[in-house]
């Protein structure tokens, strides 16, 4: 009798469990995926705003939501550039796609990118190698023609006007994984507008690669400070090893220094670049290069106020230090 009861129980429990599971699936079919639910609202709002923002003239980053990042999406063989552009693949880290069959220029771009790896490891605490991204190499899209640049950006990031930008770092975001689709480079525009286009090409690659490491490293499931100055300033601070943009400040930037606060993004928008870079200059003066690196590694998974505690500081103290640094060096 007992064994019959056990047998019935054995048959009924899985059926019941299945019924409950199916009912749960029906009830929750319109809910956001669980992985997405765990992401703080503030982070989701920030990521949404990235997807729709096009403001800087020199560069910006674009993050696109996707439903999922399946195995095939990581494979470079499926990159847009494979069928549409010239492909140059000479190492294990990068793939260069170009609108011109110019091996010399493509090799130069590869060198600029390779040279950034060690300095990125020093500042960011690590570099993001393909082995951490399902084998995906970082694609660099080099466009010597502005119309081609516009076309490539639309293919990777969706239709918009990208012609005024010099570089973009474009990501797909599934709620679980971040995948860098590629860095685009508007070399046609640099040649038209810059006195030293190759230096600007190099600096733009370093700036965008800094975004690559930062956005592949942050823990989006935690509550982070996502203010624009924090990552644009960091990218500028890093690329200033190639070309320093903040040798002087305009009168507009000088007045911006007085009214902006660290606990929000800066206005005007371009002050996020210069004011942000100067914040890292200030950190370096106060705590050394090693201190800047510790700060950066802290903001991967902690909000800035918490990271500043490691330096026996807080937001108002850091803000005072940053403002004084600007007064002493720029005003
Ligand atoms: Zn940027």
Tell me the layout of helices and strands.
Elements: H1 2-27, H2 34-37, H3 41-51, E1 59-65, H4 71-74, H5 81-84, E2 86-88, E3 94-98, H6 103-124, E4 138-143, H7 146-157, E5 167-173, E6 178-186, H8 187-193, H9 197-217, H10 228-239, H11 251-259, H12 271-298, H13 304-309, H14 315-330
Parallel strand pairs: 1-5, 3-4, 4-6
Antiparallel strand pairs: 2-3, 5-6
Helix pairs in contact: 6-9, 8-9, 9-10, 10-12, 12-14
Bound molecules: zinc ion (ZN).
Describe this structure in words.
With 331 residues, this protein is an alpha/beta fold. It folds into 2 domains: 37-223, 3-Layer(aba) Sandwich (Glutaredoxin); 238-330, no CATH class. Helix content is 55%, strand content 11%. It is built from 14 helices and 6 strands. It has a 6-stranded mixed sheet, with helices on both faces. Strand 2 and strand 3 form a beta hairpin. The longest helix is centred in the C-terminal third of the chain and has 28 residues, at 271-298. The termini are far apart. Residues 28-37 and 52-59 have low confidence and may be disordered. The structure holds zinc ion (ZN). Zinc ion binds at residues 59-61, 207, 211, 232, 235.
Outline:
This protein is an alpha/beta fold and 331 residues long.
**Number of helices, where a helix is a run of at least 4 consecutive DSSP H or I residues:** 14
Bound molecules: zinc ion
Count all strands and give the number: 6
**Low-pLDDT segments, ≥5 res:** 28-37, 52-59
Label the CATH architecture of the largest domain: 3-Layer(aba) Sandwich
């Amino acid at each position: 009798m007992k064994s019959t009861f056990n047998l019935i129980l054995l048959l009924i429990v899985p059926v019941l469990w299945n019924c409950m599971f199916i009912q749960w699936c029906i009830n929750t079919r319109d809910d956001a995926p669980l992985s997405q639910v765990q992401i703080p609202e503030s982070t989701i709002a920030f990521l949404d705003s990235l997807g729709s923002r096009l403001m800087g003239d020199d560069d910006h980053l674009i993050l696109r939501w996707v439903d999922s990042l399946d195995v095939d999406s990581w494979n470079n063989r499926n990159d847009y550039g494979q069928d549409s552009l010239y492909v140059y693949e000479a190492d294990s880290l990068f793939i260069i796609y170009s609108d011109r069959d110019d091996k010399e220029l493509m090799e130069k771009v590869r060198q600029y990118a390779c040279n950034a790896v060690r300095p990125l490891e020093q500042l960011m605490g690590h570099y993001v190698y393909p082995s951490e991204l399902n084998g995906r190499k970082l694609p660099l899209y080099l466009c010597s023609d502005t119309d081609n640049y516009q076309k490539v950006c639309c293919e990777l990031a969706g239709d918009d006007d990208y012609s005024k930008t010099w570089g973009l770092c474009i990501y797909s975001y599934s709620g679980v994984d971040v995948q860098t689709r590629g860095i685009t480079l508007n070399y046609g525009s640099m040649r038209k507008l810059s006195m030293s286009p190759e230096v600007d090409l190099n600096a733009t690659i370093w700036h965008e690669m800094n975004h690559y490491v930062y956005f592949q490293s942050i823990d989006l499931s935690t509550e982070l400070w996502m203010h624009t100055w924090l990552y644009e300033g960091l990218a500028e601070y890093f690329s200033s090893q190639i070309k320093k943009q903040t040798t002087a400040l305009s009168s507009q930037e000088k007045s911006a220094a007085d009214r902006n606060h660290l606990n929000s993004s800066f206005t005007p928008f371009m002050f996020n670049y210069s004011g942000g870079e100067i914040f890292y200059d200030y950190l370096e003066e106060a705590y050394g290069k090693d201190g800047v690196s510790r700060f950066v590694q802290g903001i991967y998974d902690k909000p800035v106020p918490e990271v500043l505690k490691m330096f026996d500081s807080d937001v108002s103290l850091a803000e005072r230090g940053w403002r004084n640094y600007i007064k002493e060096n720029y005003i």
